Amino acid sequence: xxxxxxxxxxxxxxxxxxxxxxxxxxxxxxxxxxxxxxxxxxxxxxxxxxxxxxxxxxxxxxxxxxxxxxxxxxxxxxxxxxxxxxxxxxxxxxxxxxxxxxxxxxxxxxxxxxxxxxxxxxxxxxxxxxxxxxxxxxxxxxxxxxxxxxxxxxxxxxxxxxxxxxxxxxxxxxxxxxxxxxxxxxxxxxxxxxxxxxxxxxxxxxxxxxxxxxxxxxxxxxxxxxxxxxxxxxxxxxxxxxxxxxxxxxxxxxxxxxxxxxxxxxxxxxxxxxxxxxxxxxxxxxxxxxxxxxxxxxxxxxxxxxxxxxxxxxxxxxxxxxxxxxxxxxxxxxxxxxxxxxxxxxxxxxxxxxxxxxxxxxxxxxxxxxxxxxxxxxxxxxxxxxxxxxxxxxxxxxxxxxxxxxxxxxxxxxxxxxxxxxxxxxxxxxxxxxxxxxxxxxxxxxxxxxxxxxxxxxxxxxxxxxxxxxxxxxxxxxxxxxxxxxxxxxxxxxxxxxxxxxxxxxxxxxxxxxxxxxxxxxxxxxxxxxxxxxxxxxxxxxxxxxxxxxxxxxxxxxxxxxxxxxxxxxxxxxxxxxxxxxxxxxxxxxxxxxxxxxxxxxxxxxxxxxxxxxxxxxxxxxxxxxxxxxxxxxxxxxxxxxxx
Length: 644
Hints:
4 domains, globular, alpha+beta, five-stranded parallel beta sheet, seven-stranded antiparallel beta sheet, single chain, Elongation Factor Tu (Ef-tu), domain 3
């Protein structure tokens, strides 16, 4: 086990105490090893570093090298003029390749028991493995390695009496790549070729699902976390409603329109409260407090926190059902002469009509086909419904005060719907108190996209702001892209042509624009609770992903982006940020390569990169397809639910 412990110590010590560059230079100088020639590395990439830093603890790693019967080291170093060098798309850079005489973790036999100059090892002790490592090297560069361990056996698979040779080396398909922090350099080849895409899928083909398709459609499609939340809230309310009307047999005094109004207003209050920016951010912050060391099963379930819209919808529908119950009960129970009766009838009928209109346009099919009508019904219909409910509540307070000869103030403080309506009103007014007109600088990327820069404040990662040029008419949420930590204060948003409003902004960009409310966290935020993530984007979906890529360029991640002519459409800055976060980013130009099998590519990259989760940002149909395709194959996948 001596050599096994020595090699394990080599990996650990290098990772903690030094970088691969220092290791390479040390080996080259102290063991007098020549530079290993290869056609993959240009000649100027093999020049030695002028002033490497060698930690004092490094020589201890090689104390046992004399005991090895066969050792060879091939070293590549980086050029001295880092700023003048462009990163090649692939090829070994600063790579240490060791050829050892046995596999770490197996028994190293004494020399006197060896056959020739190589030790004997039992066949069952020898396995083929992969050693992955991440090394910090000079000036913020990082090298990512995948080293394959290969063995040789004789015909009958036994090596008890034969020679055994174990090599650790970099193969052409797993050569290391280098990340340069703080540089605006792009690889020579930006677009992933068809051959590379095919190779990725050939290494890890897309498997068929292990469960029947009907089960998958129900488990991962219909019974999504959003729908589970909706069903839970609705079930609780329907159960309470059944129990409420069941009291007619024993305690009729409980079954009155006042209690039904309380239940309806409570549901409406929760429905609006769960959409408040601070409540949403609180939920994400609680989830992001989970350490990456927590069990993956807990983290993958907690990451569905962005499905909170199911509570909003469930409470909205439940509140409407309770209001229908209120309408029936008040028609039966309320008796008073004068104008109060007709006033209650008008307000009740009008409020019920508005609630039904809001629910109808909120249905997923109508919301998709008539999105502008959905927004108008939610905005104007919601405001009008709250106004009508206020009028109805005050009429009931006035009527009760007259009937019971009580002061109106006393009746008000004992009326629960009043307090719920007060909270609802405050929640609706609050975003307007945060409405500000902000100056913005425009970067016209193309006829399809533009980027707005703001310098009035910093924002945290993975949050969205609501922009508008007409606050009373419409607002639109856009993911923010925070500036790098070494840049000036501010952030930007990427606007892509996706409708009338975005087309207007791209065609005639404003110098000032309104920002409403406070920044709100989104689905990309949950990436922070995973050790390594696969970020999947199509088209302008790269915008929300950029928030993560720029805020955490060093975070372990892979990027898969499929879009039409990315550099011409979105500019070099977007591409620079992508390659800073993932120097091996897979970028597909659909104009040249066509539309790939994105599910197969995503699955292959997920497996090969050993990620823990996949984050998808695309259009609604493709997002659902990707999330379903990955989840049904055991991959934790997350994407926006498009419920607003």
